[in-house]
Amino acid sequence: MTGFPRRTGSGQTAGRQTLHCVCLTGPTACGKTDIALALAEHFPVEVVSMDSAQVYRGMDIGTAKPAADIRARVPHQLIDILDPTETYSAGRFCGDALREIEAIGKRGRLPLVVGGTLLYLRALRDGLAPLPGRDPAVREALDTEAAVHGWPALHRRLKSVDPDAAARIAPNDRQRIQRALEVHALTGQPMTALQRSAGEAARPAMLTIALVPAERAALAERIEKRFDAMVEAGFVTEVRRLRARPDLGPGSASMRAVGYRQIWRYLDNEYAWSEARTRALAATRQLAKRQFTWLRAETEVEQCEAFSTSLAGDLAGRIERFMDNARKALC
């Protein structure tokens, strides 16, 4: 296969809007990394990680970070770019990812964005709106209301003022319900509408494919096996090493990652290992559930059976067709 198509010539700012990439997403433990490596057998791939935890150095086992030998064979970008004391955001990811996608395209290779942080996907695909900052008074009022009526009741209110946001936010997702209602209270407009009118920010044309298991039970089994394999590989030792750092605490953004916070609390003797394992598995299943909910609301994502034996070949065909259409559009 020859290089991935990209528009060349003058006008780099406008040209960025015609960058092309492929995004491979899906719930946690659905096999995204394995399929990305299989696609590297078909295309000259460079991976752009779309994972909010793999950006951190020293968080290797619990984030299922590809091993060094794999990354030597298939280049991966946006991995190990931050210290765990730092924070990362959708906005920063969007800028970083756009630069990497452009650079990979210039090298004549296929930019393959891989990961399950779906907020990052939306930021990259749709751009970011200039939203108002946090308002303590509004948040306090929402918290008070939720204490009386519960967050599902506020979710029902969100459905009336911003149905698109409500469709992708779980009824018990306190943080996102609060933020969406806060934005509406401060601007009088749905957050979704503000995001859609974000302007003509540079963003690539994307083929986005989600690996979605037909059977939730199969994914739950993979989640359990993967966690136990992580523990066998030294996950607890990894968290113990991070916990020994005086500049990290259980409230650090990096340490709130699934698995890390449960093991940290185990090391703090808050509960026994059996409960830590149970809590970590439950948190991972909840993460997968939120990802399923988000993906159900996505209309611009092609879904594939995650555990199909013919998956790699099927995806290679879809990518070839996408590239052919991209080449025609650039002619």
Element layout with pairings:
Elements: H1 12-16, E1 20-25, H2 32-39, E2 45-49, H3 68-73, E3 76-77, H4 90-106, E4 110-114, H5 118-126, H6 136-149, H7 151-161, H8 163-168, H9 174-187, H10 191-196, E5 205-212, H11 216-233, H12 235-243, H13 260-267, H14 273-296, E6 302-305, H15 311-330
Parallel strand pairs: 1-4, 1-5, 2-3, 2-4, 5-6
Helix pairs in contact: 4-5, 6-7, 6-9, 7-9, 11-14, 12-13, 13-14
Description:
There is one protein chain. This protein has 331 residues and is α/β, with parallel strands linked by helices. It folds into 2 domains: 12-128 and 199-330, P-loop containing nucleotide triphosphate hydrolases (Rossmann fold, 3-Layer(aba) Sandwich), CATH 3.40.50.300; 136-196, Histone, subunit A. It has 15 helices and 6 strands. It has helices at residues 12-16, 32-39, 68-73, 90-106, 118-126, 136-149, 151-161, 163-168, 174-187, 191-196, 216-233, 235-243, 260-267, 273-296, 311-330; strands spanning 20-25, 45-49, 76-77, 110-114, 205-212, 302-305. Strands 3-2-4-1-5-6 form a 6-stranded parallel sheet, with helices on both faces. The chain is globular and about 60 Å long. The chain starts with 11 loop residues before the first helix and ends with a helix. Residues 7-17 have low confidence and may be disordered.
